[in-house]
Amino acid sequence: DYAGAYWNKSLYWLLLGDFKTGWPLYEWRWKSEKHIGEPITTSKPLWNNQDSKNVLLWAEQGIGDEIMFASLIRELHAKCAKLIVQCDPRLIPLFKRSFPKDIEFYDKNDLVPESLYEFHIPMGSLAQILRPSIESFAKGAKPYLFCQNEQAFELRKRITGNKDSTLIGISWSSKSTIPAARHRNISLADIARLLNKPGTTLVSLQYGDVSNEIDDLKKHHNIDVIEVSDIDIYNNIDGLSALISACDHVVSTDNATVHLAGALGADTHVLLPVNQDWRWGLESSKSYWYETLKLYRQETLGEWNQTLKNLEMKLAN
Of 88, 267, 293, 273, whose CA–CA distance to 172 is shortest? Predict the structure, then answer.
């Protein structure tokens, strides 16, 4: 897979923080068999930093990528006469609240009429224009998504029963289809035993049906994890954003929840496997995408003990 080799090369340079070399090679993703997503069909040209045009920005890859690349929306909007954003329908209520009111949002499964735009650009290609260097990320690292504050307040009140408690939102697995994603997962018992301290309440931010895991945790370790049953964490991203904002801290493996928490400005602690994704860089304990993320790096594949100890020390301080 000749294209796949070029795409892997791009991920290598991006991992090293060499964006000047990495972003142009990132365009090979469309020709690689491993890439998730298809380019849209349009006769309109690719946007290349022209001012005062009508532009369609369209989503690609998974929902976590869409949230991450949404950090570029405000800057693009400032350059456009009109901006249309095509994204996962689950994100539309949150995006509408968070971004300028004159941006039009479309479900990524719907066709946007070509008469509405002069240029188009996929989210991943926009980064090449707006994030050419590590320094350029500082503009977008501040919180850029905003939940319903009232809902967050009500959720916190409901979970704590108005008692003084530290809420820690937890998520422990990724449902990503990329082969290396399974290395991101950690057992609920390992994460819960570490965080279960007096005065602390654990809240599940994990998507998928995890009731059995939570029941087993209670049965074998006598640790409670609160599930807010009326928020469908996978489908109701607006509800999830309020739940994240109700928490004092978030502790999670690398998944979409981490991107949402970072975009909301939540105090977030991310457990990364040895073979981490390019977007987290190689060594830093900070993320250039989100200023409130702290990164904890695994030293040996499949071995989380030391990583969890590092997290425990950080939280104790």
Answer: 273
Nearest to 244 by CA among 259, 230, 223: 259
Q: What is the mean pLDDT of residues 65-90?
A: 98
Residue 153 main-chain phi, psi, to 5 deg: -60, -45
pLDDT in tens, 229-278: 999 999 999 999 999 999 999 999 999 999 999 999 999 999 999 999 99
Measured CA angle at 171 (ends 166, 173), to 5 deg: 165
Pick the residue with more confidence: 173 or 43? 43
Domain-by-domain residue ranges, the chain? 36-139, 149-316
What is the layout of strands, in order, in the sheet containing 104-107? 104-107, 82-87, 54-58, 119-122
Q: Indicate the CATH number of 36-139 among 3.30.700, 3.40.50, 3.30.420, 2.60.40.
A: 3.40.50
Q: pTM (2 decimals)?
A: 0.95
